Amino acid sequence: MTSIRLYDLHARDDRRPSPFCWRAKYALAHKGLPFETVPVALTDIPAVAGGTHKTVPILEDRGKTVSDSWAIADYLDQEYPDRPWLFGSPAERALCQFVETSLVASVARPILLSYLKDVYDCVLDQDRDYFRQSREKLIGCTLEELASGRAERIEAARAGLDSVRLALKGGAPFLSGAHPGYADYIAAGFLLWIAVVATAPLLKGDDPLLPWLARVQDLYGGLGRAVSLRAMVA
Amino acid sequence: MTSIRLYDLHARDDRRPSPFCWRAKYALAHKGLPFETVPVALTDIPAVAGGTHKTVPILEDRGKTVSDSWAIADYLDQEYPDRPWLFGSPAERALCQFVETSLVASVARPILLSYLKDVYDCVLDQDRDYFRQSREKLIGCTLEELASGRAERIEAARAGLDSVRLALKGGAPFLSGAHPGYADYIAAGFLLWIAVVATAPLLKGDDPLLPWLARVQDLYGGLGRAVSLRAMVA
Q1: Looking at the partner chain, which of A92, A166, A172 has a beta carbon nearest the beta carbon of B89?
Q2: Considering only alpha carbons, which residue of chain A is nearest residue B105?
Q3: Which of B154, B161, B116, B122 is nearest to B135 (CA)?
Q4: Which of A76, A177, A205, B12 is deepest in the core (most CB within 10 A)?
Q5: Predicted local distance difference test score (pLDDT) of residue B6
Q6: What domains does chain B contain, in order, with CATH numbers?
Q7: Would you place residue B184 in the very low, low, confident or very high pLDDT band (cuts 50, 70, 90)?
Q8: What's the mean pLDDT when you consider all of chain B?
Q9: Which residue in B96, B101, B167 is closest to A97 by CB distance?
Q10: CA torsion angle A10 A12 A14 A18 (round to 10)
């Protein structure tokens, strides 16, 4: 049972910044499946797990290899139907995809642009040149130029989380209702990603998101508790 | 069976602008329940259906009265469990609430501010003074002042729909997946609301939302087909 391995993006000081790997770790924990993470450098991804994958997470289970967080979640529901469902119905899965696209548009994009230099400062030495070149090509300026205008973008990212705040205002402990679910792992993954690298606060200390985020961190024996929120909260 | 009545916000030329009434009408149709709508003026709401409700939709069914679109959906699932579920699970309901809060933050707020004067121009004569006074108090300026700066807000509302566009990019015909569901009715309700009153286009003619919106309009014998999208699409 302990043979499940998850390749997890590795950064300086054993930080684990990938939001998609966080989702996959929570998905495994939700299913109650023991697993070990295998830290992997960004530039080493093409060399691991058979060498056919370009991104992490990558799951290895009983001789099978699955990459992409959605494919991993589907695999787990399919292979382990006797354990708690990640998606209790096709509609639930579709609605979780809406949660993702909504948060990508309102949160992940402004977050990424606000904290890209912070991410760079945390990547392993072997990844630095690749990270800078590939990202600067994408954004059309240097990481330092991008970082210089980030105050406004951090405001936008903070405002973009309003949908999560409003949803929690209904009183349920989780975005998925009384029980945590994949929508919570998607949203929390985006925040843990930034908490791991942030050098400027994204949230204010009285943000109504924080009790929810703490609840998600505490799940499954404290899976997300190792991530300190100190640098992300003003 | 035809005794179900739904009080539906009434505007000039028999327009039905309320996004929340649209949701309730789709919820009834989803359950396969015949119903008749009772058009009601904004200022008449306190006088109908027992006189204890401040907003529409209000549902009357077998001597019971239910207002609020979420309460109506819950009532229908509870009273008619042998018909297609609006919420197949508590998690589905919670995720639909996230869809709502996400669209309120990104779409409904900028839409409302962009088209408030258009809504005013459509309300019944008896509602005009009340509408102007109550809304101007809320926004802190006149409806005309608000309307003068709307070009930028329409852009924001159009961009705010990116989460819906991205979700549909996955290839499913509906936000709820292969079959239409409450999330579709929430999102389409916001658009039908504006289509009914718009004097300036919200969407471009090649917007990838439009085929989805047409699919929702065509559901249940063409429930939303009476709404022309002409004024809303450039």
Answers
A1: A92
A2: A163
A3: B116
A4: A76
A5: 97
A6: 5-79 (3.40.30.10), 90-232 (1.20.1050.10)
A7: very high
A8: 94
A9: B167
A10: -40
Read off the amino acid at residue B173: P
pLDDT tens digits, B40-64: 999 999 989 888 888 999 999 999 9
Average pLDDT, chain A: 94
Residue B125 has phi, psi (to 5 degrees) of -50, -45
Chain B contacts in chain A segment 197-216 (CB below 8 A): none
Q: Mark yes or no for CB contact B177/A91 under 8 Å.
A: yes
Report yes or no: A138 at the B interface, CB cutoff 8 Å: no
Q: Assess whether pLDDT exceeds 80 at residue A91.
A: yes
ipTM for the predicted complex = 0.90
Whole-number pLDDT of residue B3: 86
Pairs across A and B, CB distance < 8 A: 113
Partner-chain contact B95 A183, CB within 8 Å = yes
Structure tokens at B65: 């009265």
